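User: Fold this, then the next.

Assistant: Folding the first:
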Amino acid sequence: MFPIKISMLYYLMVFSCLTACASQTVVTEEVLFKGEGQFWNATYIYNPDLENGKGVNWIEIDYIEDESSNLDVNKIDIELESRDGLITGNIGQMENRIEGNTISFLVGTVNEETYIEDEYKLIIKFNDEQDVIKLKHK
């Protein structure tokens, strides 16, 4: 009788996991995935309208230090990792905007479907430093 209870418990746990995984919320309007690093604060701005039209979305990174004079977008590389893929590149080669310590740049599609519960890992490499930032909806 004891092994049957263990089997039932196992199946209930698996069913609960499958049900929880299936109940993710699809993003239908603009959502911000944010995170903080040692040198940068970052926001992945997911807009399904922009995504569907062009297959791109914006990332904004804010340099925490007061002076940004030594920030050269041509010397900043990024990696954006999600459950479905990885995007890498140099910000200087992407469409970008700079305003003070904030750099905004376009990235391509990362996930086949984007959910509120998604988490991303953004790695920023600059000036012989590396910042790893976890981005999630807050």
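Now the next one, as you asked:
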Amino acid sequence: MMRDVTADELEPLAIGAWILGTGGGGSPYLGYLNIKRLYEAGTTVSLMDPAALDDDDLVAVVSNQGAPLVGQERLSDPEFAAKPVRMMEDYLGRKFRAVMSVEIGGGNAIQPFLVSAVMGMPVIDADAMGRAFPEAQMTSFAIADLQMFPLTQADIRDNEVIVTRAASWKWMERISRKVCTELGSIAATCKAPRSGREVKDHGILHTVTKAINLGRAVLAARREHRDPIDAILRSEDGLRLFAGKVQDIERRTTEGFLRGRARLEGLDGDAGNGFDLDFQNEFIVGRRNGEAVITSPDLICVLDSVSGEAIGTESLRYGQRVTVIALPAPPILLTPKGLAHVGPRAFNYDIDFVSVFDGRRAAR
């Protein structure tokens, strides 16, 4: 129910989380270097099965909020990650039993490890998205209509903000996003505290282990000179959608998000075809020759065609050889209530969600 995360699991965690990030969540590289250094100095982080939580335990839900491109420019550190957690404990007058990430995707998978290393609490093997999403209301906790406040935010300039109440999850997103934008489009946050019962009932469980296993599959394929993308597809029961090179990229940081579109030119079996990817921090819609073929919440992942390394929306570059794959979304996101929060219409696309895995599910 509780085990130490070994040093040789940190790289697989970063690799797997970057794939599950669907282009967002921030690159895990800098966080990985931080936690690796802390391990070299003698720190060890414990991973706790959610089932080991008592119902009334208090769990901190953490993340870096903001635009991924800014996260590449402003280096993070463990004390910065822990600051809003300490603010929340002071505000509540209670100590947390454990810490978890709001999203397993990208650098936010490393965020609770940094908090754990500084504050000594275990990391819960769970998150609230099973991937990465850009907005506060796009979580399993929001889908379950759990309380969305209080929330704490902090930046490197010694600014601290506590949102004591919000009218709804969308209002919490609007308020905290505005603050984040004023802080330079990057802020460390501690979301509304969750009880052990809420995590067990409404969290997306064992996703840290999932990310580690996915990263291990990639590393094993590289060592054995096998195709790492095939290894990812086998590990997660995914689908290969398109192979090509980046032909054009439009990207802008606005309102605390990284928004834009990438255009791919097909290669090999996809020669003569095009593929467009719309993103808001994460990849949201994929179009083949102008027709939408995949949308959120199916996971749209862009990978280096040789290494299988994930490529974030902030690091796409002209000429990169990439492969676009789809991975299945957690079931809670596919419910009518889930789709209202994270389907294409939640991002203002007039598109009906049809999973690329529907045919496979019907065949089963």
